[in-house]
Specification:
4-stranded antiparallel sheet; alpha+beta; globular; single chain; 2 domains; Elongation Factor Tu (Ef-tu), domain 3; 6-stranded antiparallel barrel; Threonyl-tRNA Synthetase, Chain A, domain 2; 15 strands
Length: 245
């Protein structure tokens, strides 16, 4: 089975690329390579355009199924044929917003672990906001929310480099455990995965992650904690917004 080469795994800044259609369905095409991030891991899908034969089609959603990445097209009656070469362009504003939020959530997660001994148990990243759920954690006070916002912004202001690394499974597990990454997430990675993709925010945060990220925390800008919500006994949700959005 021909798989899609997922360009975003190594380079989060590719805005346009050419690709060949290797499969198609009623309303989607599968490409031999893509920079579009498929929805997953709490991060919403990329969107953009697919261009061929003077036609510009709208990519409304992207999903990964097995080793193939499906690009769902708004104009499903105009799909290119298998074997055709197409040009693709990401909605860069949407992608870059996701990158900023995703790295901010990683920083928030480490901050909560270091200062509240709470681990992230769920998250969602969109173009409007990002949120993360933490446990065990009792109701946060207004003063604590101010502390969290200030603390996360202080980390962002350090202009930390954000690095993508690939490690053999056992090496990555040993590295992440040493760095304090929560083992529950390590155990969730299928045994079939032999290589881990590790995102490191300098030496402040290290995590196994397939999402898109900025190259330096300075690109995030200021964040604000817009609200908290109790999600049940011992669980709190924190929602962030980019200050300039």
């Amino acid at each position: 089975m021909t798989k899609t080469d997922m360009l975003y795994m190594e380079d989060n800044y590719t805005r346009s690329f050419s690709a060949e259609v290797i499969d198609k369905g009623e309303d989607y095409v599968v490409l031999d390579r893509t920079a579009f991030y498929p929805e997953g891991g709490g991060q919403e899908t990329d969107k953009g355009q697919l261009i061929f034969d003077d036609k510009t089609l709208t990519i409304r959603k992207v999903k990964k199924e097995g080793g193939k990445v499906k690009h769902f097209i708004e104009e499903s009656d105009q799909l290119p044929g298998v074997g055709e070469t197409v040009q693709c362009k990401l909605d860069w504003e949407r992608r870059f917003t996701h990158m900023r939020y995703h790295t901010a959530i990683h920083i928030l997660s480490s901050y909560m672990k270091k200062h509240f001994d709470a681990e992230v148990v769920g998250n969602n990243i969109s173009v409007r906001k990002a949120r993360a759920d933490f446990a065990p954690l009792e109701a946060l006070s207004d003063e604590e929310l101010v502390q969290i916002e200030k603390g996360v912004n202080e980390i962002i202001d350090r202009d930390y480099p954000v690095k993508i690394s690939f490690m053999p499974r056992e090496e990555a597990i040993a590295f992440l455990e040493k760095k304090g990454y929560q083992t529950d997430y390590i155990d969730m990675v299928p045994k079939s995965v032999k290589i881990f993709r590790v995102i490191s925010v300098d030496d402040y945060d290290h995590a196994s992650c397939a999402g898109t990220h900025v190259a330096n925390t300075s690109e995030i800008g200021k964040i604000t904690v817009v609200k908290r919500r109790n999600m049940g006994t011992g669980k709190e949700r924190i929602t962030l917004a980019l200050a300039d959005e």
